[in-house]
Amino acid sequence: MDLERLLTDRLAPAFAAVAGVPVDPAVRRSQHADFQSDAALGLARRLSRPPREIAAEVRERAALADVCASVEVSGPGFLNLTVADHALGGLVSALAVDPRLGVPPVAEPETVVVDYSAPNVAKEMHVGHLRSTVIGDAAARTLEWLGHRVLRANHLGDWGTPFGMLIEHLLDLGEAGAAQELSMGDLDGFYKAARAKFDDDEAFRERSRRRVVALQGGDPATLRLWRLLVTQSESYFLTVYDLLDVTLTGDDFRGESSYHDQLAPTVEELDRLGLLRRSEGADCVFPPGSVGRDGEPLPLIVRKSDGGFGYPATDLAALRHRTGTLGATRLLYVVGLPQRRHFEMVFAVGAQAGWLTAPVRAEHVGFGSILGPDGRMLRSRAGGAVKLVGLLTEAVERATALARERNPELGEAEAAEVGRAVGIGAIKYADLSGDRHKDYVLGWERMLSLDGNTAPYLQYAYSRVRSIFRRAGAAARPDAEVSLAEPAERALAMELVGFAAVVEEVAGSLEFHRLTAYLHRLAVAFSAFYERCPVLRAEGPLRESRLVLCELTARVLRQGLDLLGIRTPERL
Asked: Is the pTM of this model over 0.85?
């Protein structure tokens, strides 16, 4: 159990006894003690008593003697709590023998669908796909480690009118030529060539339109050609995911096409429920509370006037499938913030239709944009979107060069391995270490710095711990008694026992900057400990105690970074 929860559990009965009703003790870390409770201030008006008097009575009633060295009433009515060293050492000792570092599996696992990445077939992945892929993968990793059944859903754009022109362009090139071009990863070139012919050639446009009709009608020959496009694109996407070191696989592809047969039944169900309205020839649902800038009700168009189905119909069919067929109770849509209104409307319709009723809920895990050094949307020198493979390759190359410069003893293979771990880790950490709702500037110097709140700083802290054990020639004894005589030892122990609370909070909020901030605090505390508390020069029980602190630090850093999808090299 983490300290914050332990103190909360000890204070809650005392507050309830004083107030006559359950009260949240509102325990949090404090600069004036280890922890602070300010719940007495909120009770003052209700009980018509001075908050300091309430705090004093709670102090007398609370069973804290075995946990706290001191409990003081301060200021207008705060309770300042200083944890006893023996209690803190006992919690650290418990963590040392716990393979899950104090984070138990959830008592009631859920089925969670995480919808993320979502590139388009026959188009290259660009920097705009990075945030969805990185944030979504961190969510999937974290929830899975906690024991939930996580279903990854890579909602590919693999259906619709553009495929008419793409298939016709494929036929013009010949299947073999097209397959070779696509297998070489030139998806953008393939798409742009098809688009140019579509814009300039009326005969090609007409062929493309007829091909769309054949595709949607299930023509076998057209479907075979469409599958060739999809297969080649999926192969390319998997190479990107391998480079980015995310957990998405070929089994996770869930293209728009997979819901094609469910579109009509979904719309029919909306009609049976009385939710469908005809507006300007289209079938629409008007979610409650959705209005445009003109104040008029805003429709979600599920079937267009020409009888075709739009993106909202696909999203509703996917939602209906995920809750009804898959039995998911938590749906996460990791998509940029500009799509917020769209998902609000989709979720509102899902609730109206009865597909989203407690405990089932859907969440739009929105995020901002990646900016260049000029503070504008990150663009290539030519003004287009930055290709993701190019960005990742540059990160690895820069990190590999730094690894060779810093440690010339590394062999070629190890330098390449370290370069990949550090480069990809730097990219991911830069994305996850800020509030995901905000934009951030991608800057190489800051991302790859060994100082500050960066992945390389944390990876270096981990490798520093491992170097201690290489020099010690022995592992830590998990059953060794932990003593906390020095302030730096105590500060490190305080951070270590806070891991569980952070993971639990992040699993709910999906605000991964809270986890990165914790890991950075831990690394800073370890650095101070490393400088002030000799480990290998210590002897006897003191040496064993400090080795336990080192081993726990390495384990927490490794596990925390793994939840973010970041590797921890043994040497840096």
From this structure: yes
